[in-house]
Amino acid sequence: MEKKFENLPTHIAIIMDGNGRWAKERGLKRTEGHKVGAEVFRNICQYCAEIGVKHVTFYAFSTENWKRSKLEVTAIMNLFRRYLEEMQERYLENEEAGYRIRFLGSREGMPKDLLKMMDTVERKSADKTRININLAVNYGGRDEIVHSVRGIAEKVKAGLVSVDDIDENMISQGLFTAGQPDPDLIIRPSGEYRLSNYLLWQSAYAELYIDDVLWPDYTPADLDRAIEEYGRRNRRFGGV
Ligand code: FPP
């Protein structure tokens, strides 16, 4: 595909929001919205790979989402299970087209069988280079920072690191996104002006783009609009 954008973000992060409202508008169950949302996730992954985005991160399930009804949580986990089975199968059969997949989030509280599949998919995709896809599952930005700081504290306790050595880079390296660039563009569909505990540390200089479209209706054309707007903005990183 020929180059479509002058200024393509290296890392796009997306909050998949609005599944519930989309379903409600149609008199469907919320879980139906998640089902369509997961298909959109798949399409947008494919589109990002096509246009040459190198890193894309999706917020699928937050540490706060456990508060939803048991029915809804189970439905989301089942959807996730189905997609993981599919991904795992494709990697085991070497059919995957260059997607490196990683999961951001805490393992605590996640069903064991999912953790096992997540490990397999991460391991089997580790040498793929076309696109890095991160799926934030059981993820919270504050929780992630706590996780990083605890790791550093352990090293200080063991005498491996001195307090004076602690810097921004060390905290970054302890996050789930260690080694990946910070997001350049964060997209939130469905009209909410919040980060909702998403990539709090990494979003320091990200451009935010809020869209009215609900996630199940989200299309590549919507992503194009966000990227074009991003291309028009003048990022100064605190400079002039
Ligand atoms: C936010 O919409 C969406 C979620 C909390 C779940 C997102 C999950 C998926 C798209 C499926 C995950 C599976 C895979 C394979 C990625 P909402 O429910 O908060 O919508 P609302 O704000 O309209 O209620």
Which key terms come to mind for this protein?
single chain, 240 residues, alpha/beta, six-stranded parallel sheet, 7 helices
Topology, please?
Layout: E1 11-15, H1 19-25, H2 30-51, E2 55-62, H3 70-92, E3 99-104, H4 112-125, E4 131-139, H5 141-157, H6 168-173, E5 185-188, E6 207-210, H7 220-232
Helix pairs in contact: 1-2, 2-3, 3-4
Bound molecules: farnesyl diphosphate.
Q: Which ions, cofactors or small ligands are bound in this entry?
A: farnesyl diphosphate
CATH topology: Undecaprenyl pyrophosphate synthetase
In the sheet with the most strands, the strands line up as: 3-4-2-1-5-6
**Total of helices:** 7
Globular, elongated, flat, extended or rod-shaped: what is the shape? globular
Based on the coordinates given, report the CATH architecture.
3-Layer(aba) Sandwich
Q: What kind of sheet is the major sheet? A: 6 strands, parallel
Helix content: 40-55%
- Strand tally is 6
Radius of gyration: 18 Å
Q: CATH class, anyone?
A: Alpha Beta
Low-pLDDT residue intervals, each spanning 5 or more residues: none
Total domains: 1
CATH superfamily: Decaprenyl diphosphate synthase-like
Write up this protein:
The structure is a single chain. With 240 residues, this protein is of the alpha/beta class. The chain has helices at 19-25, 30-51, 70-92, 112-125, 141-157, 168-173, 220-232, and strands at 11-15, 55-62, 99-104, 131-139, 185-188, 207-210. It has 7 helices and 6 strands, in the order βααβαβαβααββα. The chain has a 6-stranded parallel sheet with strand order 3-4-2-1-5-6, sandwiched between helices. It has a single domain (11-232), classed as Undecaprenyl pyrophosphate synthetase. The protein is 42% helix and 15% strand. It starts with 10 loop residues before the first strand and ends in an 8-residue tail after the last helix. Helix 1 (19-25) packs across helix 2 (30-51) and helix 3 packs parallel to helix 4 (112-125). The structure holds farnesyl diphosphate.
